[in-house]
Model the fold of this input.
Amino acid sequence: MIVNPITNGVVLDHIQAGGAMAIYKALNLDKLGCQVAIIKNAESVKMGKKDILKICEPIDINFDVLGYMDPGITVNIIKDGAVVERKKLELPQRVEGVIKCSNPRCITSIEQELPNIFKLTDRENRVYRCIYCESKYKNQGDIK
Amino acid sequence: MRSLIDIQELSTEEIDELIATAKDIIANPVKYREKCRGKKLATLFYEPSTRTRLSFEAAMYELGGNVLGFASSDNSSASKGESVADTVRVVSGYADIIAMRHPKEGAPLVASMHSLVPVINAGDGGHNHPTQTLADLLTINREKGRFSDLTIGMCGDLKFGRTVHSLIGAMSRYDNVKFVLISPDELKLPGYIKQETLDRKNIEYTETRSLEEAIPSLDILYMTRVQKERFFNEDDYIRLKDTYILNEAKLLKAKKDLSILHPLPRVNEISVEIDKDPRACYFEQTLNGKYMRMALILKLLGVE
Done:
């Protein structure tokens, strides 16, 4: 299957196979009016299989959301048919407004206006903790 | 401007400095009587407390300052639905420093983010209670003369016991400290404290359900109450509340220089017959809490 290269926009490469739809939703790509290609299970030398998202217009990407969901993604910014920037992601130190604390004893459980903020406390095991109550976030990948 | 939300925000040097100030206050109380003249402490207590609130108030009065505040959320605008952030924005216009207790974890952190004056966490749910830890540290220091080379037994509710969590965090920075964690299975120390504090710092610890087996090895026994207010299910509380009761018989195999601490209030987990035992330190501990709160207020207000 061949999907043509894009002229201007963003290509999210090296998405873990099966992960593209969750990222499509988390980045609100369904709200875009431009063409978006979701390529699932593309062949990859490094990964065996991978997903790719191609977005045919420049957009602001929330790298915290993306890095939190899949730190292995490569973001390619395309301008006039050429890659002008290639960004490798990593787990963000802090994620705000992405995931929600489920601890019923946390202050966020009664004060809904507070921003849900989590900090990375263990990079190796991808552990995020609520900055208020320090509860571990349990459902990795489950975006608010 | 500096607040104190978690004991880990204080460096070892700062803890030493607070202990030195507290000891100087004990030795020379008159010297400190006017240090906070004209300053006001607001005690915002959204949850009932006797010791901590009175200790903060006594601390401020003994420094020559004044106190205002409320002692339960029923008497505050929280009962009308006001947020912590709004309350603190208002109160920080009236006071020079705030001590806050709140049943929800993280509320004092929220307060510190919106306050114009220093905020002291006076206990947030089952989470942190740094000034209790300062009281515990001064007690250990005065009893043992050191923080290193100690075997510390933590007994009772290690799951919701915020004083336990804070003390483990504070003591884990000293050399050759070992912990014996004594609790029923349902109230064991949370895994994250074991992994991220004890394991990460290679601190030796053992877990047991038996106080009798643990007691001979201990230099310090930190007893805690099973707290009714931390349970959503009263049946669980009733089943677990009498798991450990320290009495003379259990102390027979303890070291002669054991120090028995308890953050108080106690219900029945330490028999009153122990109160006259020279190893019981829990009433001195409450007094030490006042001195450390005095030292902390001076530090956060920048009073020399």
Remarks:
- Chain B touches chain A at residues 83-85, 102-107, 109-110, 124-127, 192, 195-196, 232 (CB under 8 Å).
- The beta strands of chain B are 40-45, 66-70, 97-102, 119-124, 150-155, 177-182, 205-208, 220-223, 259-261.
- Residues 7-129+289-301 of chain B form a domain with the Rossmann fold fold (CATH 3.40.50.1370).
